Amino acid sequence: MTTAVVVGSGPNGLAAGVVLARAGVGVTVLEAEDEIGGGMRSGELTIPGLVHDICSATHPTAVASPFFRSLELERHGLEWLWPEVDAAHPIDGGRAGVMFRDLDRTAEMLDADGDAWRKLYAPLVKNSDALIDELFRPIVHVPKHPFMLAGFGARAMQPASWIARRWKTDEARGLFAGLAAHAIHPLNKPTTGGLGLMFGMTSHAYGWPVAKGGSASIASALAAEITQHGGKIETGHRVTERPQADIVMFDTTPDSVLKIVGDELPGRVQRPFKKWRRGPGVFKVDFAVDGGVPWTNEWARKAGTVHVAGTFEQLNAAEKEVAAGRMPERPFLLVCQQYLADPGRSVGDVHPVWAYAHVPQGYTGDATEALIAQIERFAPGFRERIVAQAVSGPAQLEAHNSNYLGGDIAGGANDAWQVVMRPRLSPNPYSLGIKGLYLCSASTPPGAGVHGMGGFRAATHAVANL
């Protein structure tokens, strides 16, 4: 029997394990930590019974993922739950941009900018399945829908600041800024517009759900699929040298690959891996909040995700500071209120609130107060409602998941060059240039997110090359 080892059990490592096990390969997934999942982990971080997500929280790319949808993971207990409001973007004065799964309802809420919002997103939503299939592939590929992809790509390569010119109100511009800010990159830089387009499309086409019981349930469902087909999973096994198997897949950063098998790699692989740049970090605080966050805007109280920064200009100023290696006074925050869709995570009227701020790479300070103050800005009285909190800076995040180098949860900087050269320009960017060795992490196409497509694509290549 052909044997395989997958190093790392994040969404891509587990996805690779599923593909290999289903193909009849004797696959073992090795995880350095005591529990599987990578970013898909959950736990009681503050008070007993309160369920927090360790990293990933809301999962628009998971429900959009062609691979995940093909697996029917509901058979293994995975259940998706949607909040009433996908996302809100508060503006000073109690205003907010509000995004529903329903495109028309979103446009109605955006008032004067509603028609322009609908005009941009309606064609994307109409062709969402075909577009996702194209976008969740390497940049270098033969497209099935070349004209559609070319039309999207022409806009996606633009800075978010260019696309935002079509809107006049702070609400619409801020809402788009929050979507684009998932790039963790200044919004006046090329390719940031693509994230804003994709995340808006996924909201209106699929919604932004959470996994019932916590993100760990996604990992559990994928693990069940692996073992059902004869695969094995071992935790507490940190890999420091090349595993002995016909196929070895690394759900790790390029840095880790260089440490384990660097001397074996051909120069065409070593060179770009050595030049791979880490992205900015995040500073995460999990709160136990009595009564929930008292957002001034009523729609933010119903939103599964809240992007906290203020206007487009204020958000972009914060991202520029982070990119320059400086901690902004008012950082961009991503706040998730998963309990709104999944009330079973709460204990009585005490609710888990997930929040992180974008911070410079390797930031060693304490951003807790800046994070709380930024929420308090749009939710006066929030501080008094905090029952408990758990803080994780970049160093703590990396200690818990070695892929999060310096707090970088995106698998590398999302500048224009690395978006295209992820991790190197090649028709098969997953191959490490040696028979049987592959990279399948968030550092490969299509990038970060709980969608498993990097693992699926890499493992599919491996099986085809047997």
Q: How would you describe this protein?
A:
It holds the Pfam family NAD_binding_8. The radius of gyration is 21 Å and the shape is globular. A seven-stranded mixed beta sheet has the order 7-6-12-13-14-11-15, sandwiched between helices. The protein has a five-stranded parallel beta sheet with strand order 9-2-1-10-16, covered by helices on one side. It has a domain of 182 residues: FAD/NAD(P)-binding domain. The longest helix has 15 residues. With 466 residues, the protein is α/β, with parallel strands linked by helices. Helix 1 links the parallel strand 1 and strand 2. It has 19 helices and 16 strands.
What brief labels describe this structure?
alpha/beta, FAD/NAD(P)-binding domain, 7-stranded mixed beta sheet, globular, Phytoene dehydrogenase-like protein, FAD/NAD-bd_sf
Could you give a short description of this structure?
The protein is α/β, with parallel strands linked by helices and 466 residues long. It is built from 19 helices and 16 strands.
